[in-house]
Design a protein that fits this description.
By secondary structure, the chain is α+β, with helices and mostly antiparallel strands. It folds into two domains: 192 residues, no CATH class; 164 residues, no CATH class. 56% of the residues lie in helices and 18% in strands. Helix 11 packs antiparallel against helix 13.
Length: 397
């Protein structure tokens, strides 16, 4: 009997093609929007997690200001005294202060503003290992490489009209630096276009003898990273006299960013759900119209023995099928849009590339949700049809 119900519902949809497809389109738009937005927001979260997973779980970032409003390049809020305080905290393996600022960089008489990234030569090899940075060509500078530079993956091709290569010389604020290394792609534009030079040379360029832009501390093996982060924050607050900085472990950073992305996804999904609500109203309207058009037909079915449950089942299956067809097409379109956004994201100059993965659970959710929504939207019209009296239905004009 269920097979007959499905056959009857499909026949009814074919007989009312235009109305059925107009209703289905409403579901397609809603489901496609939700699937695309969920996949894209998940892609953003995947990108963030992959970036920080490379850093491992032993890193603590200390920045002036708040986490999501840190000073930009050329602004300073920490100093070497803070570095000394952090180095004295038990459980800290090593500490790396950093400077980042914009400077004039010249190559083949072409001058641009580029971000220089000053790091000390001490612990540089350990820093490269712990952050996942790798050298594609050449090497990083050593203790005696005063006027050497390591450039980001994109800097070699996008900074100047002529490509940069190992052993090329560039001028930074008039001083000549030899390129000794090119990093592998990191995945965000800021890091991939940087010019990394020794900390002492960076201090000379920006004329800052004590200030630093950021401090990275790395925990010893077996130390609880969150407890160490709290201890560093307490020691710095005592030393500075106020909490005008942010200390956060890579684990906490991932958790906070994931929470924020989750809230954004929820809000955007709620907005997209409005189109689904419109689609559900369309299904309800279509089914009510269908009940009115088929009143005499319902009367005939009841006269030959159809029960209220049979009539209810027929109309519920039809409305569910409308949702199912719309959901299936909507999932395909939404997934395609999300994958397209992920594919073109490197060319959109976002500074990062989205990592889009369409999980099977997302596909199943989209299709089932549309089917259930369709069935629920058709519940009242189906119930109305099942309550019709045979004699009244047969007399209906």
């Amino acid at each position: 009997m269920i097979k007959d119900f499905f056959r009857y519902a499909l026949t009814s949809m074919r007989q009312r093609k235009l109305r059925s497809w107009l209703t289905i389109i409403g579901i397609i738009i809603g489901i496609a929007s939700i699937i695309a937005l969920i996949a894209i927001s998940q892609g953003m979260q995947n990108y963030v997690e992959e970036q920080f997973e490379e850093f491992g779980t032993n890193m603590i970032i200390i920045r002036p200001g708040t986490l999501f409003a840190p000073p930009g390049a050329g602004e300073y809020g920490l100093n070497e005294g803070d570095v000394d305080v952090i180095e004295r905290v038990a459980g800290v393996d090593y500490v790396v202060p950093m400077i980042y600022d914009y400077s004039n960089v010249e190559f083949h008489r072409e001058e641009v503003q580029a971000q220089i990234f000053g790091v000390p030569t001490e612990h540089l090899d350990e820093l490269m290992d712990d952050t996942g940075w790798k050298v594609e060509k050449g090497s990083v500078f050593k203790r005696d490489d005063d006027y050497s530079a390591v450039i980001g993956y994109l800097a070699k091709t996008e900074m100047f009209d002529d490509d940069l290569h190992i052993r090329n010389s560039i001028l930074i604020e008039g001083e000549k630096y030899k390129i000794i290394g090119i990093l592998e792609e990191i995945g965000n534009e800021q890091d991939d276009t940087m010019i990394m030079i020794p900390m002492d040379r960076a201090r000379d360029i920006v004329n800052k003898s004590e200030e630093v832009s950021m401090i990275m501390a790395f925990a010893k093996q077996g130390v609880d990273i969150n407890e160490l982060t709290d201890e560093i924050a307490d020691e710095l607050e005592d030393s500075r006299g106020e909490e005008d900085f942010t200390a956060m472990s890579s684990v906490q950073l991932i958790e906070q960013i994931s929470e924020i992305l989750g809230v954004i996804s929820l809000i955007v999904g709620a907005i997209a759900s409005i189109s689904l609500l419109v689609g559900a109203v369309g299904i309800m309207n279509t089914m009510y119209t269908s009940v009115l058009e088929r009143t005499r037909e319902i009367g005939v079915m009841k006269a030959i023995g159809a029960t209220n449950a049979n009539i209810l089942g027929i109309f519920l299956i039809e409305s569910g099928l409308i949702g199912l067809v719309g959901g299936t097409i909507g999932v395909a379109i939404g997934a395609g849009l999300a994958l397209l956004v992920g594919y073109i994201s490197p060319s959109l100059e976002l500074g990062f590339s989205l990592v889009i993965r369409i999980e099977p659970s997302l596909i199943i959710f989209g299709i089932l949700f549309a089917f259930i929504l369709g069935a629920i939207a058709g519940l009242l019209p189906a119930r109305s049809a099942s309550k019709l009296k045979p004699a009244d239905a047969l007399r209906y004009e």
